[in-house]
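Listing S7. Sequence submitted for prediction.
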Amino acid sequence: MSQGRLKQWVSSSHLVWLGVTILWLGVAAVFRPLALPDEGRYVGIAWEMLTSGDWLVPHLDGLPYFHKPPLFYWLTAASLNICGPHLLCSRVAPLLSSIVMAIALFRFLFLYLNKRTAVMAFVVLVTQPFFFASAQFANLDMLVACMISLTILSAAEFVWSIDRERPAEHHLMLTMFFAVGGILAKGLIGVVLPAAVVFCWLLASRRLAYIKHFFWWPAVAVFLLLVSPWFLLMESQFKGFLDYFFIHHHFQRFAGSNFNNQEPFWFYLPALLLLTLPSSLWLLRFRKPALRMWTPVQRDVGLLMLCWLGFILLFFSIPVSKPLGYIMPVLPALATLTALLMVQACQDSVFKRRSLWLTLAVAIVACVIAIMTVIQHAKKVASYQLAMQVQSLTHAGDQLVMLGKYQFDLPFYLHLSKSAWVVTNWQAAAQEVLDDSWEKELLEAKRFNPQVAAENLLNEQQLAQQICRLQANQSLWVAGDPGSAAHLALLAKVAPQAKVRDHYLWRISPAQIASACAQM
């Protein structure tokens, strides 16, 4: 693409729309409490990374947590370090990822198709209720979707440079860089999915011979040099890490059935169409004869998007467990196909342009209703309400005890720097069927640091002993319900500091701890 063409897409009007987009996607992130368990878990891990000072090893309640790689935690911990433990700061990673993905799609379509298609695809993408809500949801899905999307788009630009018999190695380097980001965001799918999508596209477009260009050795060397260090370092510190991370959390999880969100094979397709209404209704205009009116570049882009959409949907339809966030990487492809159909409809003399404005209006209303519903529901989360009542009374060095349930978000809300003590029947928890329950997550992490597990994963007898080892200036905060707390003698004469339905939070002062321990 020419320099003039490249400069056109970076204009003052585009910067204004960028500001509008940031406000549109981010405004609700300021008010909505963290959703459980995902947002609480991932923000809690990032908070622990920041407060512990260990930026290499993700920790969940002081235990190495290797379900996912560290990129999300790095970004979130960095944002929390810059602007503090605020809800908006905890959601910088998904918000930034959504904006980058939307801009990258706009740039790609602006440079290789036209401004109208680029604008329509951008607007469709940011007003899809699925995309809109996910942009404010602090988990890994938007980040990995962004990295996969950037990898595919950059690879496509490299392919087109080969078409012109002038392979642009900088696009290949970017492809490798984004693939590394995908792996550090979620694991192998960060490179497997974009590689498979591009392979399918090359095969369908009769360019399979181009594959050899992707193995240019400097690019492969850069990829390996960037992606290897963290994994090798973790294996050197924690023997068995590579087996646990790749075999258990990739292959066994893909083939296993002991996970949440179990759905039939066909689940993702109707779910995707429903979550992207009303723009997904435009797909009804898809007709094979109409494709003959597309330019060769439109057909090539359309073929790429079909491969992108089809392969990722098929891939994630195979496992029994089907979390909705897994299919987020297909949203740019779906938005592009929708935009291509919209542009084609505008060329029809009988087409009424108000259909486009109606689609946009309904999409905006759907997004607003959805996010307001989520906000109202999230504000009822007990841990958030408890923390807001006592946040001004806590100190970073206070010790938190959780009775019967691990509340991922409570240390973040209370701004605590020490790992919580979690008290439950751990022998019964070991028999838990689902591998993604909070009990199993903590018990699996125990293998990588048994010493810390012995200090933090307690039964009632061990808790009594631990309390008396607290430093003289430490307060004890206890979270639980009335039934679980009845077994802790220290709480017998202490009134709850905060209460939300059947969730209580007690504060035991250093003096009360010293008095109780002296009588033991």
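Caption to Listing S7: primary sequence and predicted structure tokens for the chain studied. The CA atoms of residues 147 and 181 lie 6 Å apart. The chain has 25 helices and eight strands.
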